[in-house]
Structures are given as C-alpha cells and as structure tokens.
Design a protein that fits this description.
Blueprint (H helix, E strand, L loop, with lengths): L1 H20 L15 H11 L7 E3 L5 E2 L1 H10 L2 E5 L8 E6 L6 H20 L8 E3 L5 E3 L7 E7 L4 H5 L1 H10 L6 E7 L3 H10 L5 E3 L3 H7 L7 E5 L5 E5 L2 H12 L4
Parallel strand pairs: 1-4, 7-8, 8-9
Antiparallel strand pairs: 1-2, 3-4, 5-6, 7-10, 10-11
Length: about 260
C-alpha cells in the first residue's frame, strides 16, 4: 500500500511539474519585474502586445479563451508575462500582482486590458457605415473599399504617439504600394486647413480624411490613439490595434490570406 501511495504521489508531482513547464518558463521573474513601475513598464511596453495573436494561459498554465484572459486582466489583480518558447507562438500567462507593488502598475494594466478587450470584441464585425472625402476630394466609403484589404489609422495632430510612428507606417505603405488590393486610409480629428499645413512638414503616405472627431468618438467609440483597423475584403474588421509593431505583424498575416 505504501509503495502504491508513493507511486501515485510521484505521478502527481510529475504531472504538476509538467503542467508548469509545458509552455516554458516566464521570460522574467514575475515578482522582480514589479519592484518598481519603470522596470515593469519597460518590459510591458516592449514584450506584451495584447492585440496580437497569442495563446492565453491562466495562473495554473491552463489554456483559456483570449476574451477571458483580457477580461481578467481588466478587472482583477493580474499581470501578463510572456513565457519562453522555441516556436513562433506567443504564450502569455497570468500572474498575481504583488500586493506591495506600485498601484500604478495595476491601474495601467487594467486600462490597457480594458482597451484591448473592447478592441477584441470589435473583431469579425462589419466596419461601421462610412462615406467621406479625403483631402484630395476622393470619396472613401464602404462601397469604394469593397473587395480590398483596408488599413485605417486613427489619429490627430497633437497626439505625440500618433506622429512618432509616421516613419514606420509610411514604410509599411511603401512595402505594399504594388498591392492594388490594399488601401491605406487615415481618419484625423483636425480640419483640412490644419492638416495641410501639418502634413507639409510631416508627410503621411495614407489617404487623409479630415474632421473625423465625432465619427471616431461616437461611431467607433475610440478612447486611445493611435488606433489601427485592418478590414478584410468582406468588409469585416479582422484586427484593432494600438501600435505599429502589432499592425505590421497583423497586416502581413492578412495580406497572405486567400479570399
């Protein structure tokens, strides 16, 4: 009996360890990374992109839906940590927030996860009714975009993060310039006069549509800028993202799909 009990105990310990190591170890110490806000933010901003595709794991390393993962980040006391992996898949795991950590860490995670959750819920839904003219007088609408992959950047002149990524998004537009089935459109809050003066100094290789503040705030219900949308050829939103790095990855994936 003792031998049987010993074998069962050994098996349980083994399977427990296996569950913990199946997806690899955390790439940083979850406790140490919470020692101060600046260290945590340096890691979070570089290594965690909640808008990208990833395998979501709970605290016991059990796979859970991405929606559940984001909901728990937005409403509970968790931080996401990426696990080390030999494959190309991203694994994000929930870890409990240290009660002694800077309260700004939890507040920032909750807000970022709330935005990511809202964006995620928009995926696979039709892009809202749209019909406006760009700075060159060209009509841009659901009908004119039909049958094309559309990349939409939402921004405004005084958004520092929006302007900082101009060189990157311009390179992206250049990369796909020969793809007639991919359009790059931007929605800006500002007036045509303000935009023409600003874009003369800082060019943007997108079709620019002015006076879009009400549409972005009320129809798209955006509260973070920049926000990027990728719309597929059927007019459905496939991705909603808040940074260029995630946009680049998502567009490459969408551009390779056969529709």
């Amino acid at each position: 009996m003792k031998k049987t009990f010993s074998l069962i105990l050994t098996f349980l310990i083994f399977t427990s360890c296996l569950a913990q190591t199946k997806y690899g170890n955390p790439e940083v110490d979850p406790i140490q990374i919470q020692k101060d806000y600046s260290s945590w933010w340096a890691y979070q901003s570089k290594n965690i992109m909640l808008s990208r595709d990833f395998v979501a794991l709970d605290t016991l390393s059990k796979e859970i839906p991405k929606e559940t993962f984001l909901d728990q980040l937005a409403n509970s006391n968790y931080i996401p940590i990426r696990l080390q992996s030999d494959d190309a898949v991203y694994y994000y795991k929930l870890f409990k927030i240290d009660p002694n950590s800077d309260t700004s860490i939890k507040a920032t995670i909750n807000q970022e996860a709330f935005d990511a959750y809202k964006n995620f819920k928009m995926e696979n839904t039709p892009f809202p009714k749209f019909s406006f003219k760009d700075l060159n007088g060209n009509l841009v609408s659901n009908e004119t975009m039909k049958g094309k992959i559309v990349v939409i950047k939402c921004w405004y002149i005084h958004c520092a993060a929006c302007i900082k990524e101009f060189p990157d998004v311009n390179k992206l537009a250049e990369k796909y310039k020969d793809r007639k089935d991919i359009l790059f459109v931007s929605l800006a809050e500002d007036t045509p006069e303000q935009l023409k003066v600003f874009l003369a100094r800082k060019p943007l290789s997108y079709s620019v549509i002015p006076n879009m503040k009400i549409y972005m705030n009320e129809t798209l219900q955006l509260n973070a800028f920049p926000t990027h949308f990728i719309i597929n050829k059927e007019g459905l939103i496939t991705k909603v993202l808040n940074n260029y790095k995630s946009l680049e990855v998502a567009l490459e994936k969408e551009s390779k799909l056969k529709n």
